[in-house]
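Pilot study result, target chain (286 residues):
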Amino acid sequence: MAGFLRKLMPKRFRKEGIEIPVVRLQGAIMSGGSQFRPALNLASTAQVLEKAFGFKEAPAVAISINSPGGSPVQSRLIFTRIRELAREKQKKVLVFVEDVAASGGYMIALAGDEIIADPTSIVGSIGVVSGGFGFPELLKKIGVERRVYTAGENKVILDPFQPEKEKDIEYLKTLQLEIHQVFISMVRERRAGKLRDDETVFSGLFWTGTRGLELGLVDGLGDMRQELKKRYGSKTKLTLVTPARGLFGRRIPGVSSASLEGVASGFAAGLVETAEEKALWSRYGF
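Predicted structure:
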């Protein structure tokens, strides 16, 4: 009956083909962010994900990932939200890797029921890294005395203005190992029966999409448009789901008021975030 009624409708009102919502997750993963440099985190993606999974007639949600990684907490939060919505709305999740889905980016990709990558994409980097700088000698040269007062002997652990301590490094490594084990467990669970028994998989190395397919890190090679049309028909429509826009057209995850000082501090923070993001991308040749 529904098909008969559809034929009676004028052609311009007929909805032909399946509509697949598309979500693009782009950039370094970190909490916070600013109006000058939006960050990829749960706060900035929650609304878009809810909207995409709200397409009632769509059999699947397509997620495009292009991220060098970043915060393991935010990566896991995004992963968890995608899986929760997939179960709640009973939709398949198809993840497509653009340039990079490495480290935290790959952790998010694990939310896909299938992962499809370009042959030249970068995938993997299943590991944990912490970085920073030390300035103790610089302070001596410019005649600055560091004064810190604490209650608790470990409150200044890994202080960049003090020489490194072996016990501090050992403690940091125990934290890294714990996070690494969580990451490994996620990979083993989500890629069960697909993952190749290769000791390098969890070493922190990264590979092209082609090699990732051989290792079982991805399920196929291709691009989003061709893959979706192959699965759901040539008339499949891809609909990009975007965040709500602010008064001046900016895509923003939330609403806040900003003073002149706030704008200035936000600009400074944006410069730091840009440097951090550039460092993440450069590791993979971008």
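One observation from the pilot: Residues 16-128+176-282 form a domain with the 2-enoyl-CoA Hydratase; Chain A, domain 1 fold (CATH 3.90.226.10). A full batch analysis is planned for the follow-on phase.
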